[in-house]
Amino acid sequence: MKETFVLLMKELGIVILCTIMGVAALAVTYFVPQHRMRENVWKSSIELYREGLGSYVWQDIEETQLDIFTDGLIINVSYTETGDGIRDILLGTRVKVDQINPMESLYEVIALANDNYYIRNYGRYWHGYQVLLRPLLCFFTYSDIRQINMILQLALVWGLVCLFAQSKDWAFIIPLGGVYVFLSPVSLCSSLQYSPCFYIMMFMLYALYIWKGKLTDTGKNYLFVLAGVLTAYFDLLTYPFITLGVPLIASLAFDMGRWMKEQKNMWKNILTHTVSWGIGYVGMWSLKWVIASLFTEENIILDALHEIIYRSGYFVEDISYLDTIKVNLSICNIKVIIPAFLCAAACIVIFRVRKHIAVDRKLFPIVGSILFVSLYPFFWYLFTKNHSCGHAYFTWRELGISVFGLMTAGVIGIRGFAERIVE
């Protein structure tokens, strides 16, 4: 009990320290001269406007839908300055023209020089993306940043594939490739809104693999706290649970030799890592509401609580949990996924890989725990019915946890692979 209390206090200390660092980072970012960004923001506003709301990378393929609305908001917030530094840093100020969205408002004010606007706040979120985006906008346009985003994402995936390929863990390439393809790489790199959770997920996978065997359980708890903190800081509630679910499955798989012997500790770690992530995520996010409410005249705490009640879908609108799941599953394009699995099954038969599949009862506990974590998206949808139903065009990516979990559970059954990992 004492150890749990000490761990809790240390994790809360990490969250408080990260909160201070987060505010400081935003404050430093606002030293970037606004005039240095102006030309690139002007070009970016035109690019966004021409692309338009509801754009797709591949027409009629729903999982390739872009979020031009939020990308416009992100650039709007990053560029807008009111002269009141505290409000800009803590409230996410942006320009707003009557009856039009943040992207079009940015276009009206920057590209068309419309001075009939007012300032709106979006104080519930940290808007930590500004730490990177404001400096980038001094040198690059929206299209340039998309290309940089694509290169970085491909490099991260390729780097981890190389690490797996050069070790006995080669089979983990399969679930990594599966979840990356599932997340729709073409839209993932083309929308700034979709990128933070992907980067945090990859950061966690690298950390867990590189430090495999060196991290203690407590060390992993701190790592999951940091993942929760970073998610709250950079993300705008897209598919945040993936920064917990995929790394948690990877942690179980990377250390399955231990968990086959310590089943009780395995489930304890699933719980503590999940709670640690929650402390980082909820703690970092809620401290933003407190700080913004204390240092401005806005009641961000009340605003945030109102949104939580509304977005849960239980107190304001009667949204069916089943409907929420259906709409998210429908965007995954089952017409593509089912043939892909059938082709994979055909390849297994043709190349007689079935001879290399083993059913070892010793693997059942670890496979069971991985399958349990694979259900995490459905827990998320249960508590965010309204948000996950209304924003299914990006919340469907939470199901990447299930894809990664199912494929990881599958590769563990390959004859010889599990034995090599356990050695």
Attribute tags:
423 residues, mainly alpha, 69% helix
Helix and strand run: HHHHEHEHHHHHHHHHHHHHHHHHH
Question: What topology, given as strand order, has the largest sheet?
Answer: 1-2
Share of helical residues: 55-70%
Low-pLDDT parts are none
Instruction: Indicate the overall shape.
Output: globular
* Ends distance: 33 Å
Specify the biggest β-sheet.
Answer: 2 strands, antiparallel
The computed structural class is: mainly alpha
The percent range for strand residues is: under 5%
Q: How many helical elements?
A: 23
Q: What does this entry look like structurally?
A:
This protein is mostly helical. Helices cover 69% and strands 1% of the residues. It contains 23 helices and two strands. The chain has a two-stranded antiparallel sheet. The longest helix is centred in the middle third of the chain and has 33 residues, at 263-295. It is globular, with a radius of gyration of 22 Å. The model has no long low-confidence stretch (mean pLDDT 89).
Topology:
Blueprint: H1 2-29, H2 34-51, H3 68-79, H4 85-91, E1 94-96, H5 102-111, E2 118-120, H6 130-137, H7 142-165, H8 173-182, H9 185-188, H10 195-210, H11 217-234, H12 242-254, H13 256-259, H14 263-295, H15 300-312, H16 321-331, H17 334-350, H18 364-373, H19 376-383, H20 385-390, H21 392-395, H22 400-412, H23 417-422
Antiparallel strand pairs: 1-2
Helix pairs in contact: 1-6, 1-11, 1-14, 2-3, 2-5, 2-6, 3-5, 4-14, 7-8, 7-10, 8-22, 10-11, 10-12, 11-14, 12-18, 12-22, 14-18, 18-22
In summary, what is this structure?
The chain is mainly alpha-helical.
